[in-house]
Design goal:
Elements lengths: L1 E3 L24 E3 L5 E3 L5 H11 L3 E5 L6 H12 L5 H8 L10 E4 L14 H18 L4 E4 L7 H11 L5 E8 L4 H4 L2 H21 L8 H5 L10 E9 L17 H16 L4 E6 L9 E4 L2 E4 L1 H12 L4 E3 L7 E7 L8 H4 L7 E8 L1 E8 L4 E8 L6 E4 L13 E8 L15 E8 L4 E4 L3 E8 L2
Parallel strand pairs: 1-4, 4-5, 5-6, 6-7, 7-8, 8-9
Antiparallel strand pairs: 2-3, 10-11, 12-15, 13-14, 15-16, 16-21, 17-20, 18-19, 18-21
Helix pairs in contact: 2-3, 2-4, 4-5, 5-7, 7-9, 9-10
């Protein structure tokens, strides 16, 4: 899935500027909030759709809920998905694309609660805009999946207001967060913060669902009638990554150079996503190339950053199937982490234990486990993150209830490093972190190296 035109850019672009022949599109838009850079209109909706086709990806279309109207949003759906001879479907055909694009996913705005966005709105203003937009959009194409902006832990009342107003209309509510600190134990606490964030959102969705019972004192007064809810809203975790070092600038914008330790953090967030797969509809790591990205380029050189390998290892370990609850019993450690992205964190600031933005965790498990079973492929897959940097751990897997093929070998993959936990992949030294795979005779006893990511594939009978 590719989210386009991404995050903050959505508030600057009118979708009408991003269609039609490139030579006839308006001049570049000025991206005022982030370095004042001009943003080209040349890579527009048709171009990103072609990229999605090439990659086998879904297009997740961001809608300008900031400075455009609900009618503009519905017209965009008509342009992309319309099948009849109507104004905007005909516009698409005139642009050389007779068949509908069949875009399913639409996100209404980006972090519209923030003063770093044009068209900032209150929760009530935003919910009213969305209510009208979703009705019009789904009148054009009832099959689309619409995501609305959430805020999460910094202001649960935002989510409460938006969900209350849009229950039965919105399909998902978004959550954004960025993680990371320059102390390794604190990096390993990022997953605990993410876990709390999802648990909080789950509770707010539960509250919104109660509106359908008529027990909420505002339901009849504010909505006029009890909402009809065909599907419980899910979560779109559509912007997240490790970010705590780099800043916005006119050049080298947010170009984090990721350490091996950051790759373990990314893997741990994937574990949290897996554990909440029952309510997470969408999860988009941010971004793709150079800016907070797994792929980094300089002129004609390219390297895969450390976090790219963590993504690949987790994806390959858990491509299909069902998530199985994993219980870990063993050593723990204490650490701290901001509950929400709070800007650049230097080494001295990271030592401060008294900041009110910090969450303190006394007993984070030293091993973070995720388990999936792919019944069709007859595989049980386990991924293990060892969060202690000073010693290895011997682990025993108790896979009770699984019909394991004890005569088949176990496939083991792990993240490799040439250096300490702060080693990086750069264009001049691109192979410091990578992947290695081997097979061993069946066993449930394994030794996990300090600060490591390991995946195990067992065959089922």
């Amino acid at each position: 899935m590719i989210r386009y035109p991404g995050g903050c850019a959505v508030s600057y672009f009118k979708w009408q500027d991003l269609v039609g022949p490139v030579a006839q599109r308006p001049a570049a838009r000025l991206f005022r909030s982030h370095g004042g850079q001009a943003q080209s209109t040349a890579f527009g909706i048709h171009e990103v759709w072609q990229l999605c086709q090439e990659l086998g990806a879904e297009l997740y279309m961001s809608v300008n809920a900031h400075t455009q109207t609900p009618e503009d949003a519905a017209n965009l759906v008509e342009y992309l998905n319309g099948t009849r001879h109507t104004m905007y479907a005909e516009m698409r055909r005139a642009h050389g694309h007779d068949a509908p694009y069949k875009v399913k996913y639409f996100g209404l705005g980006n972090e519209i609660y923030g003063n770093w966005q044009p068209g900032q709105k209150t929760a009530a203003e935003y919910a009213a805009w969305c209510a009208e937009a979703i009705r019009q959009m789904k009148d054009v194409d009832p099959s689309i999946h619409v995501v609305v902006c959430g805020l999460g832990r910094p202001d649960p009342e935002w989510d409460r207001t938006v969900l209350f107003r849009l229950i039965g209309l919105a399909d998902s509510i978004s959550a954004h967060n960025y993680f990371g600190r320059p102390l390794f134990p604190d990096l390993m606490a990022a997953s605990a913060v993410c876990e709390e964030m999802f648990c909080g959102l789950r509770q707010l969705i539960n509250e919104a669902m109660d509106t359908t019972l008529g027990v909420h004192s505002r339901a009849w007064r504010d909505l006029g009638a009890l909402p009809e809810v065909k599907r419980r809203p899910g979560i779109a975790f559509d912007e997240w990554n490790v970010w705590y070092r780099s800043s916005h600038g006119s050049t080298n914008d947010l170009e984090e150079i990721y350490h091996y330790a950051d790759a373990l953090t990314v893997a741990s967030i994937f574990h949290v996503i897996l554990r909440h797969a029952d309510m997470i509809d969408i999860a988009n790591i941010s971004l793709a190339v150079n800016t907070l990205a797994p792929i980094f380029t300089v002129d004609d050189k390219m390297t895969l950053q450390t976090i790219w390998f963590a993504q690949k290892l987790i994806r390959d370990a858990h491509p299909n199937g069902r998530v199985v609850k994993a219980v870990v019993d063993g050593p723990t450690f204490a650490a701290k982490h901001e509950r929400f992205f709070c800007g650049i964190v230097d080494s001295e600031k990271a030592k401060d234990e008294t900041l009110p933005s910090l969450l303190h965790f006394d007993a984070i498990p030293a091993v973070d486990a995720a388990v999936t079973i792919d019944d069709a492929a007859k595989r049980l897959n386990v991924s293990l993150i060892q969060k202690l940097e000073d010693r290895p751990l011997n682990v025993t897997l108790d896979l009770r209830g699984a019909a394991l093929n004890t005569t088949a070998p176990v496939k083991i993959s792990h993240l490799t490093r040439n250096g300490d936990i702060w080693v990086e992949n750069t264009v001049d030294s691109p192979h410091n972190v990578g992947l290695a795979t081997t097979t061993i005779p069946f066993t449930t006893h394994h030794t996990l190296a300090p600060a490591s990511l390991t995946t195990l594939e067992y065959q089922l009978l």
